[in-house]
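My current task is to audit a protein record that another person submitted. I have pasted the whole thing underneath without changing anything:
***
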Amino acid sequence: MKLTKTLLLSTIVSALGGFLFGFDTAVISGTTDALKSVFDLSSNGLGFTVSSAIIGTFIGAFAVGKPADTYGRKNVLFILAILYLVSALGSAMAWDWISFIAFRFLGGLAVGGASVVSPTYIAEISPARLRGRLVAITQVNIVFGMLIAYLSNYYVAELVEINSWRWMFGVEAIPSVMFFLLLFFIPMSPRWLMSKKREEEAIKVLTRCGAEHVDAEIGEIRASLDLEHHSKNEPFFSKAYRFPIFLAIMIAMFNQLSGINAVLYYAPHIFRMAGAGEGSSLLQSIAVGGTFLIFTVLALPVIDRFGRKTLMVFGSIGYVVSLATIAIVFYVYGTDFDDVGGTIVLVGILVFIASHAFGQGTVIWVFLSEIFPNRIRARGQALGSFTHWFMAFIISWTFPIIAEISGGHIFIFYAICMVGQLIWVIKVMPETKGRSLEDIQKEFGIS
């Protein structure tokens, strides 16, 4: 199978859901002080406000699996694009705290859905030898969206003096409209078409996507679905699927126990804790976004060469070193930082971001899209995403509360959790590189 124009276009357009995912995740980082002031929020109230979108996110991730199986990945992406648009405009024009929470919740539904459907769609149109890189384009777009959000926040803050936070949210409407319009130009997932017994259409899509042995691939997909012996409505939480379910839950939990979403949501706040001023903290957040993008791009050409597990090992080691260093610095300096302490925190955060981008950040969505059989892939991806976002909600809500007590406490907790991840990766995590989705299913002993 070769990389055709249809395959490349479909991957990029679907991954725009990831761009909006990243933008929506990071844009609030530049608004936390304004939100605290405008809505008169305590640290607990700010934590809930920031994490309110995540409530929608884990509900969206949990609920999207069945619609994606019933109506198709592409059709669900249309709905998500509309939710992104409504959330962007509504958050920008929110008239009180409740309305703001409601519109952020809608954006969360879109983010949760996109975290399931975009990588699932790309995995189902991609050849085994390119699947890691193509699915990882979703992660590149997530990170690119974050970087654009950080840049947008900085320039909006520079150009708009009154209610700049509203403009920060409103900018998201532009890529939301682009995403909706471009979806008209991509095909349905061939594996979803096969599940609906639309074999001729599936053959056409596989051909357009460059499949070299279409008949053989159709046969593998048909055998994997095996709907004569397995109903698409069969119980998901069954003995047959317990190993991929376990893998999905663990990788998703560890992803958030690193503290990544706390760092992304509160990056300027963390830098201010370490002595940076308002403008400087926003610039340092741009450095975070830039580092994230660079190391995600560096991971793309190697994820299919060295494998998912190798990247996870390197990333886990980087996590432990960087998080432990940041914790020690906060214990040493407390709340009285000088330039040296602030610089060490900045470098530590950048190493942490690089470790995440090269490891967990690139691997998680690829791995989740690979480990479940065709007939339950959307539901499996939904479980992994739900776990990811449920943990993100807890981490994001608790961060400002615990950080107010001690920055050292929160970062040493994350470091200890990442020691656990390193052990899990070495002892338990299987390698999935270079194998067809159907072969992975067989390896797990799933008929």
